[in-house]
Design a protein that fits this description.
Length: about 110
Amino acid sequence: MLDDEGAITRANNRAVELLEITEEEITNRSYNSSQWELTDENGNTLTQDEYPVRPAFERDELVRNERFGYENPSGEWGLYSLSAAPIHTEDGELERVVITVEDISDA
């Protein structure tokens, strides 16, 4: 989960398992941190402007099934699908962005 500034505020056990980093390491980052070394489906490095969650945070858009690659600390590259939904306050201001990530490496 991201706050309205883009900081990651919460990560569940599955995220920790998929990313192979601790919850603390995840929540010490923002969605556009340079520590995320994401790729496209072919292994080409994504720029921060191309990160799949960006439209939800920057343009208030629902993101569905955006694919990206990630190499975990043990050196294993995987393909993932990300969906993200902006959540608003009663006044219509962005409050947070909820994200789901699924490992589709074997799909």
